[in-house]
């Protein structure tokens, strides 16, 4: 066949180089269109795929403006290579990293750092006398090993318990923050401490006795449950993966007013829970009286 001043032994070759794609077998003519089309073979070579893969993309409508003429697919020359349907995001989320490193018991990663830094700062705000190195030693070796100094047993117990709480936060991530979960954190944190042996101390429950913090009145025991439910309902309406400092401050102050448990718990633990759930790196904040 001759088209213009070009001759082709195999007419279909013209599909690869000319803006002519409609071949009428009876008349042996081509109709010119506004888009340049190429064959499956040509596009497969361009994309580095097999011809079978390109045909499958065409058959499943994954290549815009691809046309089937008879049994042959023709593809716009400037078509974009479709993304693989099962392609995974190459950038893991913070939560994925934390879960993977937690499962692997990996040292030196962000999970290791979060455990030590959050635990040290949280407990230090609450009055723990353990140093950062001592906190790290307990996490890494599960032993005490202190020499020539007296150590408060409660500090060691709460440090160990705090590690468990952070694991709970990571495992719970993806779920809404609930009063049940907050109570569970407090129960785990205080289990085995001298406070847990006090009759009036409500481990894992709301306070039983009225109290004040820094000279300020707090929510009465009988009103705590209703107030915290309202607070959490408002908090859980925050947009996903968004954590504005102003909003967090409001949450912290309101929770402080409720004074849920007769104990002082740093905001770092609760804040880390909300941050990990929302997919952003956990940080360190001011203490929160709960």
Describe the structure in your own words.
The chain has 290 residues and is α+β, with helices and mostly antiparallel strands. The chain has helices at residues 40-47, 51-59, 94-104, 110-125, 132-141, 153-172, 179-190, 224-235, 245-258, 267-278; strands at residues 2-3, 6-7, 20-24, 29-32, 37-39, 67-69, 72-76, 212-213, 216-217, 265-266, 287-288. α1 (40-47) packs across α2 (51-59), α4 (110-125) packs antiparallel against α10 (267-278) and α6 (153-172) packs parallel to α10 (267-278).
Index terms:
two-stranded antiparallel ribbon, 10 helices, disordered N terminus, alpha+beta, 290 residues, three-stranded antiparallel sheet
What is the rounded Rg?
A: 32 Å
User: What is the overall number of helices?
Assistant: 10
Largest sheet: 3 strands, antiparallel
| Strand segment tally | 11
> Distance N terminus to C terminus?
87 Å
Spatial order of the strands forming the largest sheet: 5-7-6
Overall SS class:
alpha+beta
Fraction of residues in helix: 40-55%
Uncertain runs are 1-25, 241-249, 262-268, 274-290
Shape verdict: elongated
Strand content: 5-15%
Order of helices and strands: EEEEEHHEEHHHHHEEHHEHE
Mean pLDDT, rounded to whole units? 74
């Amino acid at each position: 066949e001759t088209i213009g001043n070009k001759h082709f032994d195999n007419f279909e070759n013209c599909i690869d180089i000319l803006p002519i794609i409609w071949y009428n077998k009876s008349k042996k003519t081509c109709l010119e269109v506004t888009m340049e089309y190429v064959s499956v073979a040509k596009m497969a070579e361009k994309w580095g795929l097999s011809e079978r893969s390109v045909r499958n993309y065409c058959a499943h409508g994954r290549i815009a403006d691809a046309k089937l003429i008879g049994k042959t697919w023709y593809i716009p020359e400037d078509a974009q290579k479709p993304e693989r349907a099962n392609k995974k995001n190459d950038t893991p989320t913070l939560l994925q990293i934390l879960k993977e490193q937690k499962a692997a018991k990996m040292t030196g990663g962000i999970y290791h750092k979060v455990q030590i830094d959050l635990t040290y700062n949280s407990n230090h705000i609450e009055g723990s006398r353990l140093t950062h190195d001592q906190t790290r030693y307990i996490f890494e070796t599960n032993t005490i090993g202190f020499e020539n100094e007296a150590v408060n047993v409660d500090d060691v117990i709460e440090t160990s318990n705090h590690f468990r709480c952070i694991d709970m936060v990571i495992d719970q991530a993806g779920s809404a923050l609930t009063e049940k979960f907050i109570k569970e954190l407090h129960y785990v944190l205080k289990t085995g401490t001298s406070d847990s042996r006090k009759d009036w101390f409500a481990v894992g429950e709301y306070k039983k006795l009225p109290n004040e913090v820094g000279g300020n009145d707090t929510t009465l025991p009988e009103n705590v449950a209703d107030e915290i439910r309202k607070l959490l309902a408002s908090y859980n309406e925050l947009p996903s993966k968004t954590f504005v400092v102003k909003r967090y401050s409001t949450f912290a102050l309101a929770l402080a007013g409720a004074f849920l448990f007769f104990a002082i718990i740093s905001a770092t633990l609760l804040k880390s829970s909300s941050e990990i759930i929302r997919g952003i790196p956990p940080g360190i904040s001011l203490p929160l009286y709960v």
